[in-house]
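# step 3/5: fold
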Amino acid sequence: MKTELDHLADLAGQGRISRRDFLGRTAALGVSAALATTLAGKAFAQTPVKGGILKAGLQGGESTNSLDPALNLSQVTFSFCKQWGEFLVRLKPDGGVENLIAEEIGASADAKTWTIKVRDGIEFHNGKTVTAEDVAATLERHADEKSKSGALGVLKNIKGIKPSGKEVVVTLGDADADFPYLMADYHLVIQPNGGKDNPNAGISAGPYKVTVNQPGVRHGGERFANYWRGDKAGHADQVEIVVINDATARLAALQGGQVHMINRVEPKVVDLVKRIPGVTIENVSGRGYYPFNMFCDTAPFDNNDLRIALKLAMDRDELLEKILRGYGSVGNDFPINEAYPLFTAIEQRKFDPEKAAAAYKKSGHSGSILLRTSDVAFPGAVDAAQLYQQSAAKAGIKIEIKREPGDGYWSEVWNKQPFSLSYWGGRPTQDQMYSTGYVSTADWNDTRFKRPEFDKMLFTARAELDQAKRKAIYHDMAVLMRDEGGLIVPFFNQFIDAAATNKISGYVKNPNGEMMDGYALNECWLNA
């Protein structure tokens, strides 16, 4: 009987029998109705069902959002671009790289010349075939400082881009064994002519064509009939993202059936959400962290004694316990944790109000220090700022909190104001993380940490193929940033989503980012 059940399960998984037939044939084998229903749920759960409208309620949308992937800043644009956009490669949950538009990516012996072979037969939404010229133009546009692309930092090493037939040859200034990982950057959506003509058109080769674009309100798409991976993604007829920046309203929308999945569940309500019938918490650890950013080039934060004082005045253990409720790990003022393969632990910074007071006195600063926060910075960001205010007061440091509105926070506060809360989703490699946010020339250098010696170490590590030597360099970089940078990292977070798994299937935990690294809407499906 076991063999026959396995056979039926295989047939169900392959979509070769209906749910009714499965239940009938298991009943004939003497399986109880309750057990048969359970087995059916498991057997059919992995069989994608086409049709319907799949909806997500997401935090992280603003009225200023653009469809230009170069300008992707927050969660909504991050997720929506992965519905309509297609990439050269993507990151797999196990940390590897999966080829998409790039059929192959190969390197020269010195890792300075990389050849991207463009896959045949992939179609843009406008009917044009994706070519090597489109891929080259995409990289060219994002490598141009005028584009203001969030990928600019990781493309600085590119010295030449040349399409030839079905291939694109990329020449680097320094050797970089991590080049394929860089191509997974979520800004690098492949567009016709690279988006040079109209980057806001929302045209790429992804599973959905843009039909609705109401920034700060709603975004939607309809299935692209000629999507090249139609058997693996694009299961719903339509997908929709509803911008719900308020955490309570977002949860209510999930519980009330208005949406099928939400992001950014606040840790303090996780236990309550687990009690909601039909709803499952989808949490996973990764490389994401919630920083307090200080501009190293702006007074009073241009004084390292003050920066040290502010770092020592933070009670990280209290923040982890009360804000993340344990759904994370303590940070140490540099953006790397054990999720990175070349991570090396350094001495953990502890809350020390006496040393903080001494460093603060040495800085010569007096008066209050303005810290900006918002509900959209990260779950519990306002409470985190208030807890920090209390711990800093024990060191004689007065923190003044300004609570900013969610709409406009990412365009007017983050990377614009000298002391604010933020979030980073991390990057697949240390080189990419540092290149995106902390090398001197990075457009997203949101702490204004600009140190030639740090840059030199980064470039040296990039070209170093001996992993032990590379790891030692990254250790020295971490120490320099921890002791002299403008980054305060209280904790690394878990991504905490919630899904109505009684209505949808296909949700897979992905440590690369929330909402299955942005792919939840196009890889999940509505249950029949």
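# step 4/5: annotate
The two ends are 27 Å apart (CA to CA).
# step 5/5: archive (pending)
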